[in-house]
Automatic annotation (TrEMBL), chain A:
It comes from the Bacteria. Residues 464-475 have a biased composition (Acidic residues). This is Uncharacterized protein. Residues 439-475 are annotated as: Disordered.
UniProtKB/TrEMBL annotation, chain B:
Keywords: ATP-binding, Helicase, Hydrolase, Nucleotide-binding. This is Helicase. It holds the Pfam family AAA_30. It comes from Nonomuraea longispora. SUPFAM superfamilies: P-loop containing nucleoside triphosphate hydrolases (SSF52540). It comes from the Bacteria. PANTHER family: DNA2/NAM7 HELICASE FAMILY MEMBER (PTHR43788), HELICASE WITH ZINC FINGER 2 (PTHR43788:SF16). GO terms for molecular function: 5'-3' DNA helicase activity; ATP binding; hydrolase activity. Gene3D superfamilies: P-loop containing nucleotide triphosphate hydrolases (3.40.50.300). The keyword Phosphoprotein does not apply. InterPro entries: Coronavir_polyprotein_1ab, P-loop_NTPase. The keyword ATP-binding applies.
Automatic annotation (TrEMBL), chain C:
It comes from Nonomuraea longispora. This is Secreted protein. Residues 1-16 have a biased composition (Basic and acidic residues). Residues 1-25 are annotated as: Disordered.
């Protein structure tokens, strides 16, 4: 968090209403998102209690395990969940586009992808655990489950994993997304409460948001008071209806909040980089579907050495790209870099579009631009720069001081002897330059998993899910 | 495993053919590069090709220069990335060839490159490798290059900063091959029987500093100074004016340490007063014509022999802007790793802070800052760090299966602060 | 001599702070929590005096948001019973694997059988005997009762199990009902367990020392027993608690040096809840609130998960318009500016920076300018 965000929080606290920290939306919002609000049984790792889900805000589905300690009921719940989620997910597989690739075969990419929205980070964690508890199960042998259960487990694992991937919108956690766009007047810890954060954004802070009787927690953990006074007696009564109705009271308020939050985000125009990141999500989603179609085994319990390194490299690249794209897409995000001196903005006061360097054949066009700025520039001469106003362009800082910065354009101004029209900003134009650039080198290859070197434990044993995995107890 | 440094080096060389990997822990200034050069010559003498891995281009160039100076008959190939411009001193060396591909290098005795560059090389296996600064190398980098060699010597300083990532890597914690762990930790977790040697003597740190750094950052292994009290002297040619800055320099010249303490106050990171004090100290040090005498003789402390260190980049920028003589190195702890100066001036990472974060408490950060000097280290800090440490909440999460790292940042900070308080100005 | 006198004063002052409210006994969890916010004078004094913070917060109308679900409690009890069933048969199986216990026979002592009042003495005798004849076969001590001195009071502690292994090492066994899934568990839950186990390690080491044995016979590796994956089947892991031990020692030393805090308090200050015969507090709420406000809290949002007094202190921070509300990081970033209004005044230029505030004022004004420009 930067001082800019801190200032927004101070302002929010003072004015009693959250303050914007983004001018555009940085996440993709699906036309038909699947809102998923799961609850788990307290004290258990991943024993589902209930879930409210659906793509229609007026017609939520409520799935309840009326007796969570009954394994059969839990398997049945998992199958019911699969009955809702799998058709939704698979519904996106039919319409695809062919994508050409350099040095590789073309592949089919879904033109749209599923988006499962959960209330908070804990919700993502629970999805991952649900996935873990289901994906190794089998339709045969002891404790058989419907075939859809292990398949759902693989998908939930995938979505849970992908949620940790910077810039992905396949499984957004609502409080995180809201927090990226608004600064409340409370702490980051308190922002994890969906009702409290939404109150800050819409009407102003309210202690009601922390009262579980008015706003039950958004899950997956339930309110201990509710467990003791309502749920436990309902379960003891042996009436499934009573349990179902009790849980409905805990889920309905959050259901409403989730859609309210979606509307809020939809009110923001999407940033320029959102579509390309969603495209990557679509590609990733199609890759996973192909993986399943090819009959690959379920995801292993934990990453092997090579898989971990590969994933880390992808995540680091995605994080860097996400940071750069958000800054280029949104002046308010760029302002954070301007505050620390890694970017500056101002008005062009002088230009020399025909400036050249070198002689004869090595003579190169290097248009000069002088910018007047109020920003504290902390960039050294020679620093390479990019600019949101001309994305493909590269520039270099020549000198900075006394509110004037001189830069020379080094690439992306056309190949001619003079700069292409519009390539050099005009005097009076407002421009922004930053050392933050989206230039990434590919990462070098990793060995095949079978060739894992001795330093990392040597070739791993190939993972084959066994009966023990499939029969793993659900207490 | 103590003994004379020479004995340790001989043990290391003797272990090389006996094990697939050998690890050498080297505290600051303990002759790591000397060892690498010795080992390189030793392996090259067997006639078998050797690859050397370092972490930065400067480290690579430095090693090339040292190898050629010590062993002019060896041929060295310096592999580099496309945009790299080799320094002139390298091009003048007769046995060195620079190229972007292994094929361009001829068939030298030694091929040397950064870990990043090595990761792009394939199709050949070297019988031997030396991996330098192996504790600062992330294990995923080692994974990319480990297929290039059959056996290797890993050399590094376990007390410096750990490698890091911009993404959260909790998902891999506890795994023996956690990609965010250092190359050495992953290597040793899979090969616990590999010998680990320790260089026992710091040639850089003076007698005034070695025990302090050893106690705070190497509590279990320890090391000693190669020089004794009185072997190193720092003298200021011109007299002082009695200002706190001058007195701090005098204290540092006399004892090897000084703490210039500013009034207790919570400040922004780029605390103007502290930044000014650091810049003033640097300027005064040069003005007063410091002269360093040591086993290497007597020489003036010129600007290139002085460094200023801080925790954050904005602090570095602020110190620069405050008018430090331009020839003086001003940098963050991360970038000062592996460097050596006569005198260092340090802005304490906890100065002016109200709460200590894990970043500030990381023991490696303070270790780097407090162990770059041959003669003296002047620390600038606001009063109140002791209270801040005292009030620090301890709620670090614990991951199952992850060995606890020592020293604890809190304890290390406390230990250094304790020592500095005896040199307060 | 004067030291002795001061110590007496000190204990007397702490008693006066508590008044007629019964002393809140420290259990391992409470002792471990001493390190949660050591900079908070209010908490240090309440803990030092043994004031029941939960009761105080309730009485003030700011009950803490902590509660445990009956499902979680049941689950915890069922799990512990399962681990300890048949003379800790399951536990033994795991210890064999984890600690390389080779002996076939392992004795089991349930210390509870001797009756509550004798448990502590009996634990001493058993531990003494075990430490003396180290050649004995492995033994598990169930329900032992240890003690530790906290700020002049004896706290009694009940570790789940103490295991004594052949080879002369004692291991604290901690049974927790959070799951270990594929080798990993919630890091904050593990940390809490480690802090708690460190209290037992220290207590047992102290006991051995008193008995004239080597305190290091107690291993700093504690055995954490948790359900594995999604089942009830237990799995044991070793957790190194050396860091937690160091923190604990520091905090216990601090507890004995509350003098400085006590000296600053008015003579007649008390946190007494004045309980009636049924234990219900009768002290006027406003009076108690005022008394507490005489001490300085160091509120941070982290308190919301660690301190019973959190809502009271948060409310106070709100009244004061303190930037602490926004979290430690924001507070730190603002340099010395503690109040929200002050920070905003500096940002929009309506307030002139005081001495030493020039830089934060410049930064805030710059941030304000940028926000204004981008949101225009």
């Amino acid at each position: 968090m930067s001082l800019l965000t801190s200032l927004a929080r101070l302002r929010a606290l003072d004015e009693g209403i959250a303050q914007p920290i983004a001018t555009v939306r940085h996440c993709h919002l699906a036309a038909r998102p699947m809102v998923f609000v799961p609850l788990k049984l307290s004290g258990e790792a991943a024993a589902p209690l209930a879930a409210m889900l659906g793509t229609d805000r007026d017609r939520p589905r409520l799935l309840v395990v009326t007796q969570p300690r009954n394994r059969d009921l839990r398997f049945a719940w998992a199958a019911e969940l699969a009955g809702v989620l799998l058709p939704y997910v698979e519904g996106f597989l039919h319409r695809t586009e062919t994508v050409e690739r350099r040095n590789a075969d073309p592949y089919e990419r879904a033109v749209d992808a599923p988006q499962i929205v959960v209330p908070n980070q804990a919700g993502v964690g629970f999805v991952r655990l649900l996935g873990r508890s289901m994906r190794f199960r089998r339709a045969d042998g002891p404790w058989p489950v419907p075939e859809s259960v292990p398949l759902l487990g693989r998908w939930l694992t995938y979505f849970g994993e992908r949620a940790a991937y910077p810039g992905s919108s396949l499984m957004p956690a609502m409080t995180e997304e809201l927090g990226r766009h608004w600064a409340s007047g409370q702490s980051g810890l308190e922002d994890a409460n969906l009702a409290a954060l939404l109150a800050w954004i819409t009407t102003g802070p309210s202690d009601d948001a922390e009262d579980p009787l008015i706003w039950p927690p958004a899950g997956p953990a339930t309110d201990p008071g509710f467990d003791a006074e309502v749920l436990a007696p309902a379960m003891e009564s042996g009436s499934p209806e009573r349990v179902t109705e009790a849980l409905r009271t805990q889920l309905e308020p959050t259901w409403g909040l989730m859609w309210q939050a979606i509307d809020l985000l939809a009110g923001l125009e999407a940033g320029a980089g959102v579509a390309s990141r969603w495209e990557q999500d679509r590609g990733s989603f199609s890759g996973m579907a192909a993986h399943i179609a090819e009959g690959a085994p379920p995801q292993p319990r934990r990453d092997g050495a090579v898989a971990a390194a590969a994933k880390l490299a992808r995540m680091e690249r995605a994080q860097a790209a996400y940071d750069v794209q958000r800054a280029y897409d949104d002046p308010l995000v760029m302002a954070e870099y301007r505050l620390t001196g890694e970017a500056f903005a101002g008005e062009v006061v002088d230009t020399d579009p025909g400036n050249t360097e070198g002689e004869g054949r090595s003579r190169k066009l290097r248009p000069i631009v002088v910018i007047k700025t109020d920003d504290p520039v902390r960039l050294a001469p020679g620093a390479s720069l990019g600019t949101p106003q001309r994305r493909g362009q590269g520039a270099e800082l020549v000198s900075a001081g006394d509110g004037l910065v001189t830069v020379k354009i080094t690439k992306g101004m056309g190949r001619g002897r003079t700069a292409a029209p519009g390539a050099v900003p005009e005097i009076g134009e407002r421009v922004c330059y930053t050392s933050l650039t989206d230039e990434f080198q590919g990462s070098p290859a990793l060995p095949d998993a079978e060739a894992t070197p001795w330093t990392h434990g040597g070739p791993p044993q190939e993972y084959v899910p066994d009966d023990e995995d499939a029969q793993e107890e659900w207490s | 495993m103590t003994g004379s440094p020479e004995q340790v080096i001989r043990n290391v060389l003797a272990d090389l053919p006996r094990h697939r990997g050998v690890v050498v822990d080297s505290p600051p200034g303990a002759g790591k590069s000397t060892l690498v050069v010795r080992a390189a010559a030793h392996i090259a003498a067997t006639g078998e090709p050797l690859m050397i891995v370092a972490q930065t281009n400067e480290q690579v160039d430095d090693l090339v220069t040292r190898i050629c100076a010590g062993h002019p008959r060896l041929t060295v190939g310096r592999l580099s990335a496309g945009g790299y411009v080799p320094p002139l001193r390298l091009l003048e060396l007769p046995g060195v060839r620079v190229g972007t591909r292994v094929q361009d290098l001829g068939d030298p005795d030694i091929v040397i490159a950064t870990a990043d560059k090595w990761a792009w090389i394939g199709g050949r296996v070297w019988p031997w490798a030396i991996v330098d600064e192996a504790y600062q190398m992330r294990s995923d980098k080692l994974l990319r290059i480990a297929g290039l060699f059959e056996r290797a010597l890993f050399v590094g300083d376990p007390g410096q900063l750990d490698p890091f990532s911009i993404v959260d890597g909790d998902r891999w914690s506890g795994l023996s091959w956690d990609p965010l762990q250092s190359a050495v930790s992953v290597l040793l977790r899979h090969n616990p029987d590999l010998p680990v040697h320790r260089l026992p003597v710091s040639w850089r740190l003076p007698a005034s500093a070695a025990p302090v750094v050893s106690r705070a950052f190497y509590p279990f292994t320890g090391f000693r100074s190669g020089t004794s009290e009185g072997d190193r002297r720092l003298e200021l040619a011109t007299g002082g004016m009695g200002t706190p800055h001058d007195r701090a320099l005098e204290e540092a010249a006399r004892s090897g340490w000084a703490l210039l303490e500013l009034p207790n106050r919570h400040t922004v990171r780029t605390d103007g007063e502290a930044v000014q004090a650091v810049a003033l100290l640097a300027g005064r040090l040069l003005q007063r014509g410091a002269v360093a005498s040591s086993e290497q003789g007597e020489r003036p402390v010129t600007a290139d022999r002085v460094a200023v260190g801080a925790a954050h980049r904005d602090q570095v920028a602020a110190i620069r802007a405050a008018g430090v003589p331009p020839e003086i190195t001003v940098d963050t702890a991360n970038r000062l790793q592996g460097r050596e100066y006569d005198v260092t001036i340090v802005l304490h990472p906890l100065s002016g802070r109200r709460d200590a974060t894990a970043f500030h408490l990381e023991s490696g950060r303070l270790c780097v800052l407090a162990s770059r000097h041959r003669h003296a280290c002047v620390v600038v800090a606001r009063a109140g760090i002791a209270d801040l440490l005292d009030a620090h909440p301890s709620a670090e999460p614990v991951q199952l299966g992850v060995p606890v790292k020592f020293p604890d940042g809190w304890e290390a900070n406390q230990s250094v602060l304790d020592h500095l308080s005896r040199h307060r100005v | 001599m004067s030291g002795l006198k001061r110590e007496g004063d000190h204990a007397h002052r702490l008693e006066a702070l508590r008044g007629t409210t019964p002393q809140q006994p420290h259990d391992a969890r409470a002792i471990a929590a001493l390190a949660a916010n050591p900079g908070c004078a209010r908490r240090a004094l309440m803990d030092g005096a043994g004031v029941d913070k939960d009761a105080a917060a309730r009485h003030l109308g700011f009950p803490a948001p902590f509660g445990q679900s009956p499902f979680a409690i049941t689950r915890g009890n069922v799990f512990e019973a399962l681990v300890k069933a048949d003379g800790c048969a399951e536990l033994l199986r795991m210890l064999r694997e984890l600690l390389g216990l080779t002996v076939a026979e392992v004795a089991y002592h349930d210390v509870e059988n001797v009756g509550a009042h004798l448990r502590h003495a009996h634990t001493r005798t058993l531990i003494d005997r075990a430490a003396r004849d180290g050649h004995d076969a492995g033994t598990l001590y169930d329900h032992p009762l240890l003690s530790l001195e906290i700020a002049g009071h004896t706290a009694y502690l009940e570790p789940d199990v103490v295991a004594f292994q052949l080879g002369g090492r004692f291991h604290i066994v901690e049974i927790k009902s959070f799951a270990v899934i594929d080798g990993q568990a919630d890091p904050s839950a593990v940390a809490a367990a480690a802090r708690q186990a460190a209290v037992y390690v220290l207590a047992l080491r102290t006991l051995l020392e008193e008995l004239g044995h080597d305190p290091l016979k107690v291993s700093h590796d504690v055995v954490l027993v948790c359900p594995e994956n999604f089942a009830n089947r237990p799995v044991a892991s070793l957790v190194d608690v050396r860091r937690q031990l160091a923190v604990l020692r520091r905090q216990l030393t601090r507890m004995t040096s509350l003098d400085r805090l006590l000296e600053e308090l008015p003579e007649d200050l008390t946190f007494d809840l004045r309980p009636d015969e049924d234990g219900r507090p009768t002290r006027p709420v406003a009076e108690l609130g005022d008394a507490l406000r005489r001490t300085t809290a160091r509120y941070a949002p982290d308190c919301l998960s660690t301190c019973d007094m959190c809502f009271f202190c948060r409310d106070e921070a709100r009244q004061e318009g303190a930037s602490d509300l926004l979290g430690r990081q924001v507070r730190d970033e603002l340099g010395g500016v503690a109040s929200v209004t002050e920070a905003l005044g500096l940002a929009d230029g309506t307030r002139d920076p005081a001495e030493g505030q020039e830089e934060i004022a410049r930064l805030l004004r710059n941030a304000e300018r940028l926000r204004g420009e981008c949101l225009a």
